[in-house]
Amino acid sequence: MPESKLHVELLNMTQEPVKVIFSACRQCYSASSAYDIYKSCFDKGDAAKQEDFIKEIVSSGHETPLEHVSMSFAAEGISRTCSHQLVRHRLASYSQQSQRYVKESDFDYIVPPNVKNDKELLNIFEATMRQIQNSYNTAVEMLKKKGKKGESCNEDARFLLPGAAETKIVVTMNCRELIHFFKQRCCARTQWELRALANAMRDICRQVLPAVFENADAKCVSLGYCPEGAKFTCGRFPLKEEVLKKK
Ligand SMILES: Cc1cc2nc3c(=O)[nH]c(=O)nc-3n(C[C@H](O)[C@H](O)[C@H](O)COP(=O)(O)OP(=O)(O)OC[C@H]3O[C@@H](n4cnc5c(N)ncnc54)[C@H](O)[C@@H]3O)c2cc1C
User: Fold this and answer.
1) Is the pTM for the entire model greater than 0.90?
2) Which entry of 26, 185, 195, 202 is annotated as an active-site residue?
C-alpha cells in the first residue's frame, strides 16, 4: 500500500493548433474559406503573426475559436476526492480507472501534506489505510464465498475504500474550457490537490501552446482583483470592492 504522487502527461492534442485557431478566427472576417486560410498558413504563413493574432483574441475574451483545439491529459497519483471535484467540470471528456474491474487488493493512496507533516496524525492515517485494506480484502473473500465472482465482488467491496484511494483518469478539454478550468482551479481557494493538478496541466499548456496559455492562471490574474471576498482571499490581489471603490 504505497503512498502515491501526482503525475500528469499530455497524451495528445489537436494537430497544428495555432493554424487551426488562426484560420477559424480569420474566416470570421474574410471572404475566403477557413480551409484556404489554413492551407495558406503552410504556404506563406507567418507563424509569429498567427501567434500574435491569437494572443490578441485571447486577451480580448473572444474565446470561441479556442474551442476547435482540444488537449488530452493522463493524470495519475490523484485521490478519488480530487477526481470527484475534477469531473464537476462538464465541458470535458473523462475516462477513469474502474474500481469494479481493477481489484484494489493493494490500493495506493494520497496523503495530504498537513497529515504528512504531523507524525502522530500520519500514524493514525496510515493505520486507517491498513485497516481499510484488510476490511476490503476480507469483504472480497466473504463475497467470493457467497458465490460472487470478479467485478461483482469488487463492486461491493469498493464501498469500503477511502476518498484517499489513488485513481488514474484521462481528461480531454478544449482550450476555452482549459482557460476556464485554470481560472477556477489555479486559485488558492481551490483544494490543494486539485490545484496541484490544475497547475501541472497549465504548465504543460504554457509549454506546448504559449500563444493561448501564456497568461493562463487563476482568475485574479486577468481580473486584476480577487472576487472571493475578504474571508477567502489569499491576498495576492486586492479585493474586488477595493478596486471598484478606487474607480
Ligand atoms: C473554490 C471552489 C469551491 C467549490 N465548492 C463547491 C461546493 O462546496 N459544493 C459544490 O457542489 N461545488 C463546489 N465547487 C464546484 C463548482 O460549483 C463547480 O461545479 C465547478 O467549479 C465547475 O465549474 P463550472 O460549472 O463553471 O464549470 P464547467 O462545468 O467546466 O462549465 C464551464 C462553463 O460552461 C457553462 N455551463 C456549463 N454547464 C452549464 C449549464 N448546464 N447551464 C449553463 N451554463 C453551463 C458555464 O458558463 C460554466 O462556467 C467549488 C469550486 C471552486 C472553484
Assistant:
1) yes
2) 185
In the annotation, is 185 catalytic? yes
Calculate ∠ Cα 13-205-177, nearest 5°: 75
Quote the CA–CA distance of 37 and 32 in Å, as a whole number.
Answer: 7
Architecture of 1-99+166-216 per CATH?
2-Layer Sandwich (3.30)
Q: How far apart (Å, rounded) are the C-alpha atoms in residues 217 and 202?
A: 8
Q: Which residues contact 81 (CB under 8 A, 6 or more apart)?
A: 110, 163, 164, 191, 193
Please, which pLDDT band fits residue 94 given cuts at 50, 70 and 90?
Answer: very high
How does the average pLDDT of the chain come out, rounded? Answer: 94
Domain coordinates of the chain in residue numbers? Answer: 1-99+166-216, 108-164, 219-247
Span from the CA of 87 to the centroid of ligand 1 (angstroms): 10
pLDDT tens-place string over residues 2-43: 778 999 999 999 999 999 999 999 998 899 999 999 999 988
Pocket residue to mutate for ligand 1, from 64, 82, 90, 219, most atoms within 8 A of Cβ? 90
